[in-house]
Amino acid sequence: MRTIAIKMLFGDTAKFYGILLGLSFATLLIAQQASIFVGLMSRTYALIEETPQADLWVTDPTMQFVDDTKPMQVTALQRVRSVDGVGWAVPLFKGLLVAKLPSGTRQICDVVGVDDASLIGVPARMVKGDVSVLRKPDTIIIETRGARSRLAQPINPADPSGPKRPIEIGEELELNERRAVIGGIAETKPTFQNVPTIYTTYSRAIGFAPANRRTLSMILVKAVDGASITELRDRIARETGLAVYTPHDFAWTTITYWMTQTGIPINFGIAIVLGFLVGVAIAGQMFYNFTLDNLKYFGAMKAMGATTPRLLELVALQGAVAGVLGLGIGLGVTSIVGLAIPGDKLAFKMTWHIPVIAAAAVIFIVVASSLLSMRRVVKLDPSEVFQG
Questions:
Q1: Could you tell me where the DSSP H helices lie in the chain?
Q2: pTM (predicted TM-score)
Q3: Which of 25-29, 140-144, 279-283 tops mean pLDDT?
């Protein structure tokens, strides 16, 4: 009888494809929008992921997220270094500066200044050049996305609006009217601000930046071997009065800011809810109509001795088959779209939670549709079918 139920489902081609369309489209919307949302949120703390050497991040207490730089006095660095349990502490500069490109155009860039001695904070994945080039005068490192997009230069200098080529090592920029020579190109994770990122040394970065008494954006701290990170975090906060985060806490602080202080979650949430409602409206209605059209077959089975629980099992089986197929198609299309579009153009990150959430939504749709259909099957009188 299970085989008959499956044949009934596949036999009604129009309604079967309608059910699949509804479930697949609902899964696609839910999974895609959720993946883009997670991708966007992961970009907000890209700098933290790119700096795995630090056990702790020390910032101004009023700083709300990683890009909300609130400069501190340089004396804060020595105060942090004097705390018991600190292995090393290095400065980090981060700020938005305007760069003048070789073509004469101007582009806002995110400038990151790392410790002059250790170069902690420079991306590990170098595509061209080596991190040691930062020890040369006026040298900077740029990232690949900026090199081939925002910082790209016209192939024909006489035609600035024509085809462009990636900017190359050896070419020069101007940052705050100071010469900056590109010495390397690194591969980094996309950032939320979507502006080119420039890496240089801390002393050079504060020279590029406008004059300011406070130049220290953040402090990276490494604990001594065997020290408790939690205890060191509390000790630094208590003795310096600064905010201290583990990388995990700093990332979640950043995510929390964007989720609570912006409309991003609401916008994506509406799209996800609409996808769910579309699935309920299309798949639910089509499955209910499918059951109504096949009541005569269920009536014949009941007349031949099939019990009501047995018939309900067949309805549930039909719903489960449609749900699995719709979920698989929806997740498959979502994954293909996510892989087909380059990561720097589409913020896409599908964690294991997203297929689980999509599966839960599909299960709800299928169960609700099956329950509505089961009511008609339970009340079915075989004599009515044969009289009709």
A1: 2-11, 13-43, 46-49, 75-81, 144-148, 202-208, 229-240, 247-261, 264-279, 285-293, 295-303, 308-340, 353-378, 382-387
A2: 0.83
A3: 140-144
